[in-house]
């Protein structure tokens, strides 16, 4: 599971067997998890994150969207 970015307590990553799904990024903070689609950026799922945390994470996803896309394409050959 390649880690793409760490910002504070948040780790942004994807799983190595996800190449058949559209580009997306997972974020983890301890036992909290969320998944964001990248085109367009939108929340796909979440576990335990509070609404204000989700807003912060979505802002980080939007700010780093091109980095996440580049990492996805480099790993999955997009």
Describe this entry's structure for a reader:
There is one protein chain. The protein is of the alpha+beta class. It has one domain (3-76). Helix content is 32%, strand content 37%. The protein has 2 helices and 5 strands. The chain has helices at 51-63, 65-76, and strands spanning 3-7, 10-13, 24-29, 32-38, 41-47. It has a 5-stranded antiparallel β-sheet with strand order 1-2-3-4-5, with helices on one face. Strand 3 (24-29) and strand 4 (32-38) form a beta hairpin. It is globular.
Sheet of most strands? 5 strands, antiparallel
Residues in helix, %? 25-40%
Oligomer: single chain
Give the averaged pLDDT, no decimals: 95
Total domains:
1
Give the helices and strands as they follow along the chain.
Answer: EEEEEHH
Sum this structure up briefly.
The chain is α+β, with helices and mostly antiparallel strands. It has two helices and five strands.
How is this fold's topology laid out?
Blueprint: E1 3-7, E2 10-13, E3 24-29, E4 32-38, E5 41-47, H1 51-63, H2 65-76
Antiparallel strand pairs: 1-2, 2-3, 3-4, 4-5
Using brief descriptors, characterize the structure shown.
78 residues, alpha+beta, 32% helix, 5 strands, 5-stranded antiparallel β-sheet, globular, 2 helices
């Amino acid at each position: 599971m390649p880690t793409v970015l760490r910002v504070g307590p948040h780790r942004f990553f994807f799983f190595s067997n996800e190449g058949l799904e559209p580009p997306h990024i997972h974020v983890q903070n301890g036992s909290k998890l969320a998944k964001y689609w990248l085109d367009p950026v939108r929340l796909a799922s979440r576990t335990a994150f509070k609404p204000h945390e989700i807003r912060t994470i979505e802002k980080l996803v939007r700010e780093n969207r091109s980095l996440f896309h580049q990492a996805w394409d480099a790993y999955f050959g997009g």
